[in-house]
Amino acid sequence: MSVFGKKNGGEQAEAGDTEAISSLIDKSMSITGMISFAGKARIDGLINGNVEGEHLILSETGRIIGNVKAATFNCHGILDGDIQANNVIARKSCTIHGKLVATSLTVEPGAAIDGEIKAAAKDHRQQIEGKSQAQLLSPPEASMQHNTDG
Q1: What is the pLDDT of residues 70-116, one digit of tens each?
Q2: Number of folded domains that form the chain
């Protein structure tokens, strides 16, 4: 248990907040391709590709066109892609277009999120993941068509 009495998820978010930034993509930089990192990274520029790592900060000038997979994702900028993270913080200046799957989700007033959101505690998420993809993704029209064929 940490000094402030937070449990596992809180400790991970706290570690991401206090850890020094080990990688920086400057706002004058544009990168095409997959990026993988350890520690804490901040993106001020443009990434055209997937990003995977521990603690990611997308600044107000940053943009990612691709998917993000991280332990913590702090979004101030623009993301066009899917997010899979334990902790996501959507700041008031951020815009997210895509599917968001997180154990913990914080959305500030003014943040724009366009897409599917799945935010649940880990034990509840495991119950959801236990269902078949067909059950989760089948549109209502498909089941209605099946009933009218008989």
Answers
A1: 999 999 999 999 999 999 999 999 999 999 999 999 999 999 999 99
A2: 1
Residue 90: domain span: 8-121
pTM of the predicted protein model: 0.70
Contact 86, 69 (CB under 8 A): no
Distance CA 127, CA 112 (A): 28
pLDDT at 8 over 60: no
> What is the token pair recorded at 78?
């623009």
Phi first, then psi, for residue 140 (nearest 5°) are: -60, -30
**Tokens coding 64:** 């990612």
CA distance 104 to 88: 6
Contact (CB, 8 A) for 76 and 61? no
